[in-house]
Structures are given as C-alpha cells and as structure tokens.
Amino acid sequence: TQSFEGAGGAGAAIRAFGGPARGEVYAVGVDRRLLRHDGQRWIAMAVPPPAGQRENLTGVACLDGGVYISSALGSDEGRLLHGGADGFVEVARCRMPLVGMAALGERLLFVTGDGVATYEGDDIRMIKSFPTNAIYPGIGRVFVLQPAPERPMFAEYEPRHPQAPWWRLVY
C-alpha cells in the first residue's frame, strides 16, 4: 500500500496501479481514490457515485477495449468501471465485493474473499469458491492467495489446461 499526498489526497492509501501506456497510468485506492498519471503529473479523477455507499477501488486492468477498475462496496457488493482519460462509467454490479482484479488474456478475473469470479458479457459470476484475498497476473495464468494459510501456499488458474485448470501449491 502506498499513500498519495497531494491536492485532495489526504493521505489516501493506494491499492493498485495499472495502465495501457507510459503516459496513461492509473492508481486506485480507498475512499474512491482514482488518479491518472499523464506522463508528467498525477491528476485526481472523478468516480461515478455508488449511490451513497462507502467504496474502495481495488484493481486496475487493461484490455484491448480499455481500462477497467474494480471496487468493493462495503463487504457484500462490488462493481466494475470502464473508461479511460475522459472518465469512467459503471458497466457491472454484483452481490460480492471485488477485492482484487487481474487480466488473463482478454478476460477479467476477480477475487471476492469467497472465491474467484469472471466478467462475461454484462455479468460477473463466480467460477471457483475458496477463501481468497489477492490475485496476480502471470503469463497465461493467474495466481491467487488465500488469507492467513497455515503454510505458505497459492492457487494457480491456467485455463489452457481444461481438464485441470486449478492447482494449489503448498510449501
């Protein structure tokens, strides 16, 4: 976690970074903090309001169709925003917090605290249930962490192996 100290920043924690180009990088964080770096400076951006709920922005991922931002609205709801330098709009809302996000090819995957979900069409749906708290992209796969495991471990999802796309590695 990093902190943003600047106009309107108030020390807000930054949770994720990402962007499609050197001159277009986004940082997201607690209390709907959205910043864009234009190659020279950080600029605070507006986030479409979530109807009065507290919201933490949790992930940034880039696909050919643009930039996506995930969020957690409290502990039981999430939403997905899509856009870029001109602004963002809500494209999906679900009954689970989107705790983190990673792109896998042209697909978006999320950890929800209770598993891994995917965005397909206009819907976010769960694809695997187990305790989760972080997701990281790899080449052709994603790595998922569980909260406070007894032994160091991670889960790996590699969909190009349809017979066994999920692996759990324990050390």
Radius of gyration: 16 Å
The helical percent reads under 10%
Largest sheet: 5 strands, antiparallel
State which percent range the strand residues make up.
over 45%
Helices, by number, come to 0
Question: What does the oligomeric state look like here?
Answer: single chain
> Quick check: average pLDDT?
90
Which secondary-structure class do the elements indicate?
A: mainly beta
Helix and strand run: EEEEEEEEEEEEEEEEE
Distance between the termini: 26 Å
> What would the principal axes of the Cα set say about the shape?
globular
What is the strand arrangement across the widest sheet? 1-2-3-4-5
Low-confidence stretches: none
- Number of β-strand runs: 17
Question: Which key terms come to mind for this protein?
Answer:
171 residues, mainly beta, 5-stranded antiparallel sheet, 17 strands, globular
